[in-house]
Amino acid sequence: MLRFLKTYKMTLLFLIATTVFIVVWNANRGFNDEAMASVPRHDGLDESSILQGEDTSSLLEPSYYKYIGLHKESGASDSQGFQIVIPSLDYSGLSPEGTAEKTGLDGMAAPVVALLEEDSWADYEVSVPEDGFYQMGMSYYALPGKRSDVVRSVMIDGKYPFFQAKKLDFSRMWREAGEPWHDNQNNQYNPKREEVSGWQYRDFTDAEAKVEEPFRFYLTKGTHVVRIHTVREPAAIGELRVFSPKVIPDYDEISVMYDEKGYKKTEGHLIKVQAETSTLRSDPTLKRIEDREPDTEPFNKDAVVLNSFGGLSWREGGQWAEWEFEVPESGLYHIGARYGQWFLNGIPVQRKMTINGELPFKEMNAVSFPYKAEWQISTFSPGDDSYLFYLEKGKNIIRMEVQIGGLGEILENVTDTIQKMSLLTREVIRVTGTNPDPNADWKLDRNIPDLEPRLQNMAWSLEDGIQSLYDFGVKRGSSEVSTLYEARDVLLSMADQPSTIPARLTQFTELQSSLGLWVNGLSRHSLVLDYLIVKSPEQEWPRPAAPWYVRAGTSVGDLFRSFTKEYGGVGTVYAEDEEVLDVWIARGRDWVEIIKQMIDEDFTPETGIKVNVNVIPAQQMQLLMLANTSGMAPDVALGVEGEVPIDFAVRNALVNLNEFEDYEAVADRFRPGALIPYKYDGGDYALPENQNFYMLFYRKDIMSELGISEADIPQTWQEVMDLIPLLQQNGMDFFYPHAPNMPQLAINEFAPFLFQNGGDFYTENGARSALDSPEAMQAMRMWTGLFTNYRIAKQADFYNRFRSGEMPIGVADYSTYILLSTAAPELTGWWSMKPMPGIKQENGQINRSTGGLAQTGIIFKSSKSQEEAWEFLKWWTGADAQERFGSELEALLGVEARWNTANVEALQRLPWQQSDIEAILEQWEWFREREVVLGGYFTTRHVANMWNEIVLNGRIHREAVEAGVKEINKELRKKREEFGLDRQSGQGEEREQP
C-alpha cells in the first residue's frame, strides 16, 4: 500500500509539473503572439546588398515564387491568345552525342528526336508576339531505361529562369501485371507492376507540386531558344508546345454552362470504384495496402486482404493514379471518396483531380482532404452543397495527383528564412570564430549590418507562415505549427539580446535543421483511399466508418487471433514434413515479402527447391545465436550484420563457403576487399549482400565562388587541410563524420586514415592490436587533427548544412547520397561527388582505401541441405536477383530505399545516374574492409575512447593510444584463451588477404 501511495504521489507531481510547463509555455507563446504586434517590419531593408555575393552559396537561381514576384512587380502579365506547336524534328540545335531519331513509337509514323544519354539536349527556337508570361508543355515517350521517372531540365536562352526548372519530372505509366496472389494462409499480396509504354503529354510543372499551376515563363517579344536537357532516363520528344496561360473556369461559371446546355441530374445511381483496382499509376510504389477498419471494402476478418490504396507511398508531389468506371447515362453526378488522412496532424492534404484528362473546373486543381484520426467521406466540396460533375454515358477516367501547391508558398518562405539564418550564422562565425568565448562582448550589432532588423524580419516571415497555415485550414494547437513558434520566439529573443547570440550558435544551427526537417515533413502528403463514389444527387453518401462497437468487436477478434497466428512466416509456408530450405531474414516485412515472391516465382521453379522464409527483427543477432545454441538454427540467414559471421565461425557453426567448388567464381562478384571481414582460419564464412560507401560530396556553385574549379576539388587529405582555412575564413566548414552518441561507428571513421597510411588494426593473425604502430600513430594524428588543429565541427547535420551552404564539402555515406537525390531538388545540378580523399603513394597513386561493412548471408553448419543452401545463396547474391530485388524494392518503397548491392554488375544495372556510378566504382577500386576478430569489440570501444581523450580532454596521442592498446590486447588474449585459439594449429600463420 505504501509503495502504491508513493507511486501515486510521484505520478501526481509529474502531472502537475507537466501542466505547469504547458501553461507557462502557452503563456509565453501568447505573450510573444501579442509582442509581435510591437515588433517593427523593416520593409525598406535592402537585404540584397547584404546577400550580394554570399547568398548565392545557397541558390544560384531564384525560386519560382521569387521569379514570378519580381516580374509582376515590373508590370509583367499573362500573354493572350498565343499557341505554337513545334514538332520534335524542328530543332535548332542538338547535342553531338546521346541522341537518335526514333520511328514507329506507339503508332507514330513521323520520326522523333530521342534524348538517350545524360547531358544530351535539343534546342528549339520560339518566336512570341508580345512580352509576357507563357506556359510550356511537351509530349514524350519514355524509352526502356532503369525504371525511374524521366527527368529533364529546361533552359531559356542559355539560363535556368528559376531553380525548379532544373528538375522537371515526366512520369512513366505502370499497371498491375495480373491479379493479386494469395499464399496458403489466404493472405493477399500485391501483384508485380509492369510498365505501360505510350505517348503522354505534361505541362512543365514543379516536380514537387509546390506550385499549383504549370510554370509561367516570362518571355520578351521576339525569338528565344528553349533547351530540353537530359538529367535522367531516355525518352523521345513528340512536340514542344508554348502557349498563353490557361484560364480554368470556376464552379460558378461551370454551373451556368450546365444550365445553358440543359444538363440534368441523374437519378437512382450509386457506383463505388474500389481504389485498390487503380488501372494506371505514375509510380510502381503506388500499391494496394491493408486496412482493418470493418467498413473498408472488401474486409476479411481472418486473413490479410489488400483493400485500400495509397498510404505512405502516395505522398510525393506529382504522383498520380487513375481509375476507370462506367456510368449508365449521361448527366450530372456527385463524386466523392472514402478516405483516411491521419498523417499530418491538423493539416489538410490536397489532390488535383481530372476527369478524362481535363480539370472539370478550377476548384478541382486542389481538392482538400482534412485531417482526422479515422475514416471520412469527402464530397470534393468545401461546404454542404456538393459539386455536380457532368459525365458522358460509358467509360470515364478519374485521375488524382498529389498537390502541395496550397502550402507551397508557405514552405518557400520558411526555406528562405532558413537560408537567411544560415547566412547570418556564417557572418557571426566570421566575427567570433568557430569556437567563441560565450562570455566575451563581441559587439555583433556593430560588426554585422542591420542585425536586429534582419532577425525581426525573419521572425515576421515565420509569423506570416503561422497565420497562413491557419488560413489554409490548419487547426490551432496542431503540433505541426510548434516548430515555427519555437523558431520565431528564438529569433525575437536574439533580436532583443544580440549579445547572447555567440553562446546560442548551437541552438541557432539546430533550429535551422529543425525547420529543414519541418519543410520536408510538410512536403509529403499521404492519403489512403478505400473507394471512389459516383452517385446521383438524391442518393445518400455512405457512412464514413463502422460504429464503435463493430470496430471494438473486430479489435477483440484480432487480439484473440494474434495468439494463434504465425507472424514469422512470409508467403506460402510449406509443411514441416516436406524437404524445405529454412531461410531467416533480418529485415522489414515489406522487404522480406519481395524476397519471398522472387523465390516463389524464380528460384523454386528453376531449382525445384522449396523455401520457407521467416522474418526476424533487424539488428537482433542474438536470436541467431540462441537458435544455434538450441539446435533450431535455419539453413540460411540473410541480413546478418557484418561483424557477426566470425562469432559463429569460431564456434564451428557456419559452413566454410570456399569448400564449394565454384566459390571463387561467386566471390568474383564482389570487390576483393569486401570479403576480408568474413575470413577466419583459412576459411570464408559469408557473402556480402550490400555495402555502404563513403564519398566526397561538394557544392559546385560554392566551390566555384571560392575560386576552386572542378579539377581542383581535393584529392588528398593534405589538399583538404589546405582548403579548410579558406572555408573557415568565409564562415564555412569541412565535414567529416563523427557520431559521439554512437561510439561503435568511430572505428569506421578512423579506418580510412589507418588503411591509407599503410596500417592495420591487428597483427599476429588477430592476436594483438597494431594501433601502436608508427602508421597507426600517424593515422590517429591525422584523424584527430581535423578536430583539434583545424577545428572542424565535432558533430553536425551534414545534409541540412550542405543544403544551407554552411558545409559545402565533406565526406559522407550512402544515406547522404539518397537524401540529396530525393529531398534537395533546389540543388539539382549543383552538387556532385567524387571518391574520398586519400594519401599519395610513392608511385603517384592516391590510396583512397575505405570500407563500408553492411549485411551478409551465411549458411549454418547444422543444415542438412548445405548444397541446396549454397544454391540459394548463389542465386540471391547473383546479378539478376540483386537487380530485380533492387528494382522491386525501389518500386515498393521509393528511391529512399535504393538497394546498395555489393554485387558490382548489379550495381551498374540499377537506376543510378551514370556519373554517380562511375564515381562509386572508382572508390570501390580501393574498397577495403577491416578484419573482424574475437574480442574486436574492445577495439571499437577504445578507438572511440582515444578520440574522446585526444580531442575532448587534450591528452597526448601516444598516451591515449597506448592506454587503449593495452586494454585491447588484454581482451584479445582473454577471448583467444577462452576459445583455445592459440592451442589450435595454423593460428600462428598470417590470414590470407585478398
UniProtKB/TrEMBL annotation:
Q: Which SUPFAM superfamilies match?
A: Periplasmic binding protein-like II
**Top-down, what is the taxonomic lineage of the species of origin?**
Bacteria, Bacillati, Bacillota, Bacilli, Bacillales
Q: What's the domain of life for this entry? A: Bacteria
InterPro entries assigned? Bact_solute-bd_prot1, SBP
Q: Which PANTHER family match?
A: ARABINOSE-BINDING PROTEIN-RELATED (PTHR43649), EXTRACELLULAR SOLUTE-BINDING PROTEIN FAMILY 1 (PTHR43649:SF27)
Instruction: List the protein's name.
Output: ABC transporter substrate-binding protein
